[in-house]
Amino acid sequence: MINYVTCRETLDTPAGRFECVKVVTAFTCEAKVSFIRLRMKETIAVWVTSGFGFVRMGVLNKKGGLRSGYFELERLEM
Question: Distance between CA 38 and CA 35 in Å, rounded?
Fold first, then answer.
């Protein structure tokens, strides 16, 4: 597993605008089913903000963009 910070970004979400750091994690999963061995390489990005935490998370495609369907902060309740 490899973790690294790639950049700072401003994200607009339904919960508001956040100054974030983008953290990327690349990993490999392996599974064996009967006689078949499966190996998957995935890259996940998580955007976090100081004093709060998670704002957005999703799986990246080979070009580094988000695949369709990601998790995002919808609202803040304090």
Answer: 10
Closest to 27 measured CA to CA, from 39, 13, 41, 17: 41
The overall pTM is greater than 0.85: no
Alpha-carbon distance of 71 to 65, in angstroms, equals 14
| pLDDT tens track for 1-46 | 778 788 999 999 999 999 999 999 999 988 888 889 888 888 999 9
- At 74, is the secondary structure helix, strand, or coil? coil
Q: CA dist 44 to 58, 59, 61, 62, Å? A: 6, 4, 9, 11
